Amino acid sequence: MSEKAVLIARVTRCSTRSFVGASRLPEADVPTFGSFCKARAQRGQSEVIGLIYDIRIEDDEMARQIAIAADPSQEQLADNRVSRLIPIEISCLAVGYSSQDGYAYALPPQPPMTLDDVFALSRDEVMAFTQSMDFVPLVFSAPGLPADELLAACLRYSAEVRPQSEQRAFLVEAGRVCARQLAGDVARLDRLVRNLAP
After folding, report:
1. How far is CA 116 from CA 4, 8, 133, 188, in A?
2. Number of domains in the chain
3. pLDDT tens by residue, 23-69
4. What is the DSSP letter of 120?
């Protein structure tokens, strides 16, 4: 039985390299750093695969008022954290795209459009996309991102969605791919490989 797609945001800003989505999700449904998502592009002819590299909780007037209160009650804190939906902004690096021909590990021909839905990739989709590690160079070449931490988080998650018997082999192969990319920087490679440990 296939998993139901989980809507996590709607696109607010986009480019070929990345896109940003906003949503009001309960805390349990907030996506995590290093997880994969997708948004349709080219009028549905393709889906851009994104890797979540930043999650922000946006300004909220009510939260600001409670924060500066002298001594907010437990009821006020609980109401703000549990009952009210929190405005969330997620930033995603484009690491590939899918079309009827399968996955391509390159920047997409077009970005998603404003207000397009952003869905979390299912476990099966994560396994299928990460059968190839060809997305890794796109992460290393992205300017201004915490590339090592991002790769470690996404590769750990990609291992966790696999059967336990395949997890170690996946991480070993991921380490090899990263070693080829960072052949001239042994210290950085060592830190990254240590972060791959579950």
Report:
1. 18, 11, 27, 37
2. 1
3. 876 666 678 999 999 999 988 889 999 999 999 886 667 666 666 66
4. E
As a whole number, mean pLDDT of residues 87-98 equals 93
Rounded CA gap, 140 and 95, in Å? 11
pLDDT per position as a tens digit, 110-157:
999 999 999 999 999 999 999 999 999 999 999 999 999 999 999 999
Q: How far is CA 43 from CA 5, 25, 72, 103, 198, in A?
A: 19, 26, 48, 17, 39
Task: Judge whether 171 lies within some domain.
Answer: yes
pLDDT at 3 over 90: no
> What does the block give as tokens for 77?
């804190």
- Which residues are registered as beta bridge partners of 7? 119
Residue 166 lies in a domain: yes
Which among 13, 194, 198 is positioned nearest to 118, based on CA atoms? 13
Q: Is residue 26 part of a domain?
A: yes
Q: How far is CA 38 from CA 77, 141, 171, 175, in A?
A: 33, 20, 23, 25
Is there a domain that residue 1 lies in? no
Tell me the whole-structure pTM to 2 decimals.
0.85
The closest of 65, 2, 33 to 139, measured between CA atoms, is 33
Task: List, as one string, the DSSP characters of 50-80.
Answer: EEEEEEEEPP-HHHHHHHHSSS--HHHHHII
Q: Which domain holds residue 13?
A: 6-195
